[in-house]
Design brief:
Helix content: 40-55%
Oligomer: single chain
Radius of gyration: 20 Å
Bound molecules: nicotinamide-adenine-dinucleotide, 3-isopropylmalic acid, magnesium ion
CATH topology of the largest domain: Isopropylmalate Dehydrogenase
Largest sheet: 10 strands, mixed
CATH superfamily of the largest domain: Isopropylmalate Dehydrogenase
Shape: globular
């Protein structure tokens, strides 16, 4: 039997521990029923780490994240920590993980499950059959650019500064990931920036175009300004296959894409680094949603985004496509039966369930499928 995979679970704040609880059940099931074993270590990130350690992620947790086979994260943040110093806010823990692990490519697939075509706030015909992938640059841009900060101008005014910065290599490495993924899907890539306003957007378009000519001319490449892309995503989202964009535009466009699928509670993500000499990538898997303070502690959270993130881990970090298919298929079965958490209740809900009951229904469907 293969050695157990080493995972670091960082459940975080708010609904993070609730949705991660369902992932732990699925991981245990995989060990007992499919001989895919996991050694799970757990640590704190975000507000809970601030409470316990005074920082949103400790050096010891960072060391663990650097050495495991994959990291799973729930969500960080919440109003309880609104008053902490900006440098140690909960979100800074997640940003440090992404930056120090060099997870530059964030894959955010938005897929409309057939049973949920009516759960979207858009019309069925607009979203039915949708299957797009947003590749978001994750370690650069305005999230990390220098200079940054708030300065006192001394005349009663203050100035807040963030800097949008991209280099050639940062653009090319994430674009290469997107081109490769497009080749495995519909072979179409749309690169999104604002080259009409920003020099960094101009460089982005030039570098993506150059890389296309050099190495990926078989892929159909198009370019779009980010504001237009936001509009096109709700006008006609099925025109897209793979979208590649920067850190901030990717953050916003992926929340928008989530609503095409019915709920933010449906969107998983994989954050990947470059492969090492042995072909292994550092990786962190997390739902696109946050800690949802408005529903935390009530058993209302949809665990599907986090379970699908676990499925992405099986596929991308461990090449366990069959096991990933099993989870994704079970999610589809459960939705077909009309089992819904409140966020995806829509019009087709036959049974409104809690976080835990959704997990149980998915586990049962996995068991049925593997019989
Ligand atoms: N990756 C992360 O850890 C992450 C991502 C986004 C936001 N955040 C943080 O989360 C906190 C809250 O942010 P927000 O309210 O803007 O965004 P959010 O994603 O937490 O919630 C937005 C809305 O979506 C709903 N929602 C989100 N996930 C859901 C789920 N699984 N099931 C059902 N409904 C769900 C919430 O109830 C809320 O109404 C902030 O501190 C923010 O920084 C963290
Ligand atoms: C919590 C926050 C730092 C994060 C981001 O902006 O990247 C979140 O919104 C996301 O989409 O993962
Ligand atoms: Mg976001």
């Amino acid at each position: 039997m293969a050695a157990n995979k080493k995972l670091l679970v960082l459940a975080g704040d708010g609904i993070g521990p609730e949705v991660m609880g369902e992932v732990k059940r699925v991981a245990a099931w995989m060990g007992s029923q499919r001989a895919v074993g996991f050694d799970i270590d757990e640590a704190l990130v975000g507000g809970c780490s601030i409470d316990a350690n005074g920082v949103p992620v400790t050096d010891a947790t960072m060391d663990k994240a650097m050495t495991v086979d994959a990291v799973l994260l729930g969500a960080v943040g919440g109003p309880k920590w609104d008053g902490v110093d900006f440098s140690i806010r909960p979100e800074a823990g997640l940003l440090r993980l992404r930056k120090d692990m060099e997870l530059f490519a964030n894959l955010r697939p938005a897929l409309v499950y057939p049973a949920l075509a009516d759960a979207s706030s858009l019309k069925r015909e607009i979203v039915e059959g949708l299957d797009i992938l947003i590749v978001r640059e994750l370690t650069g841009g305005v999230y990390f650019g220098e200079p940054r900060g708030i300065t006192d101008l001394g005349n009663g005014e203050r100035r807040g500064i963030n800097t949008q910065v991209y280099t050639t290599s940062e653009i090319r490495r994430v674009a290469a990931v997107a081109f490769e993924l497009a080749r495995k899907r519909g072979n179409r890539l749309c690169s999104v920036e604002k080259m009409n306003v920003m020099e960094s957007g101009r460089l982005w378009r030039e570098e993506v175009t150059r890389l296309h000519q050099e190495q990926y001319s078989d892929v159909q490449l198009s370019h779009m300004l980010a504001d237009n892309c936001a509009m096109q995503l709700v006008r006609n989202p099925k025109q897209f296959d793979v979208i590649v964009t920067d850190n901030l535009f990717g953050d916003m466009l992926s929340d928008e894409a989530a609503m095409l699928t019915g709920s933010l509670g449906m969107l998983p993500s994989a954050s990947l680094g470059a492969p090492d000499a042995a072909g292994r990538r550092k990786a962190l898997y997390e739902p696109v949603h946050g800690s949802a303070p408005d529903i935390a502690g009530q058993g209302k959270a949809n665990p599907i985004a986090t379970l699908l993130s676990f499925a992405m881990m099986l596929r991308y970090s461990f090449d366990l496509g069959t096991e990933a298919d099993l989870i994704e298929g079970a999610v589809s079965d459960v939705l077909d039966r009309g089992i819904r958490t409140a966020d995806i209740a829509g019009t087709g809900a036959a049974q409104l369930v809690s976080t835990g009951d959704m997990g149980t229904a998915i586990l049962e469907a996995m068991a049925q499928r593997s019989r």
